[in-house]
Amino acid sequence: MSIQWKGVMPAVTTKFTDNDTLDLEMFQINIDAQLDAGVHGIVLGGTLGEASTLLDEEKRKLTQFTVDNVKGKVPVLMNVAEQSTKGAIAAAQKAEEDGASGLMMLPPMRYKAGDRETVEYFKAVANNTSLPIMVYNNPVDYKVEVTLEMFDELLKCDNIEAVKESTRDISNVTRIKNNFGNRLKIMTGVDTVALESLLMGADGWIAGLVCAFPRETVAIYELQKAGRIQEAIEIYRWFLPLLELDINPKLVQNIKLAEVYTGIGTENVRAPRLPLFGEERTHVINVIESSLKNRPTLPDYKNI
Question: What is the value of pTM for the model shown?
Answer without folding.
Answer: 0.97
